Amino acid sequence: MNKIKFIYNPVSGNGIIKTKLDHIIERFQRHGITIIPHKLLGKNDIKKAFVEFKQKEFNGIAVAGGDGTLHDVINEIISKKIDLPLGIIPAGTSNDFASFLEIPKKLDECIDIIIKQNSQSIDIGKINDKYFINVVAGGILPSIAHKTDKKLKNSMGMLAYYLKAIEEIKNIKPFNVDIIIDEQRISEEIIMFLVLNTSIAGGLRIMPDASIDDGYLNVCLIKNCNIPECAALFIKLLKGEHTEDEKTICFKGKNIRINSKTKLETDIDGEKGREGPLKIEVLPKALRVFK
Fold first, then answer.
1. H or E element, residue 73
2. Which of 161, 181, 213, 288 could be stapled to 85 by a disulfide with Cβ–Cβ 3.0 to 4.6 Å?
3. How far apart are CA 278 and CA 291, in angstroms?
4. Coil, strand or helix: which one is 199?
């Protein structure tokens, strides 16, 4: 029997998935695929989705939600050594990972990709004892993400983050970091760092040349700058013209260590992350996705 485990977050984005569940079941069923739904009831409910999960009984796993939901599902898949392809239905406020993979926004088109069951092997990041799909960030960006009102995010989408970013510029606090990338060491006063598995964070194409299957992570540092410089750099970020700016440092690496005497607020795939020191590495082609 062709069977898919379907995990969905009923509160992601505007909650559209829970109203479309019957349609999703029918569309798969008409193509001879049975889906086994699991509704996430809370942040820690993801583990319950894999209780008594038998890999040999399934052809894949599908997940509907944003980057945070994907993060939780992938941590379970990798930690439990589940070797099944993952289908993605982007349904959150932030769908950076799906955007990078060019997953369609229309529900039926996402389902069609999963039905065809063509897969691609991609890289995954590891930070200390956790895994990430898209980005680890520290500095001003996590502050913006965690302070943006959830209701505002659901109603305004990414625009809510941009409005919060403008509001938070005046509160920027630089910090010193010591970063080791493979064999290279960088010590710098910065306001933000990003370690990306893809090219996109916060809806912005931070690393335009990033690849998800090259065995490398992409790092972008934003040096300390005053408010006018920061505002000008933000405009360049919106236009994708920031990588050549003197206030940015961009590079690739496989193993990254980040240390700071400052207490760092971090963000991992849109969710609040742990404090430093951070040990980050790439796991080449560790996950298969329906594509």
1. helix 67-79
2. 288
3. 31
4. coil
Asked if 289 and 117 count as a contact pair (C-beta separation under 8 A), the reply is: no
Distance of CA 16 to the CA centre of its chain: 20
Q: What is the CATH number of the domain that holds 94?
A: 3.40.50.10330
**Size of the chain, expressed as the number of residues it contains:** 291
Full domain range(s) for residue 154:
131-285
Catalytic annotation present for 265? no
pLDDT at 155: 47
- For 50-97, how does the pLDDT look when each residue is reduced to its tens digit (9 = 90+)? 998 999 999 999 999 999 999 999 999 999 999 999 999 999 877 999
248 plus 158 within the same structural domain: yes
Q: Which tokens go with 142?
A: 């996590």
Question: Backbone phi, then psi, for 91, in 5-degree steps?
Answer: -140, 20
Give the model's confidence band at 152: pLDDT under 50 very low, under 70 low, under 90 confident, else very high: very low
How far is the C-alpha of 20 from the C-alpha of 247, rounded, in Å? 46
Contact (CB, 8 A) for 259 and 276: yes
Q: Six-digit token pair at 272?
A: 């609040």
**Residue 140 and residue 212: Cα distance in Å, rounded?**
25
- Rounded-to-integer distance, Cα 243 and Cα 233, Å: 10
Domain boundary at 85, 117, 149, which?
117
Q: Which of 13-17, 145-149, 187-191 has the lowest mean pLDDT?
A: 145-149
Which of 53, 84, 117 finishes a domain?
117
Q: How many domains in the chain?
A: 2
Terminal C-alpha separation, the chain? 22
Looking at the fold, whether 162 and 276 belong to one and the same domain comes out as yes
Which ranges of 139-284 does DSSP label H, i.e. alpha helix? 140-147, 150-156, 158-168, 227-239
Q: Which two tokens stand for residue 270?
A: 């849109």
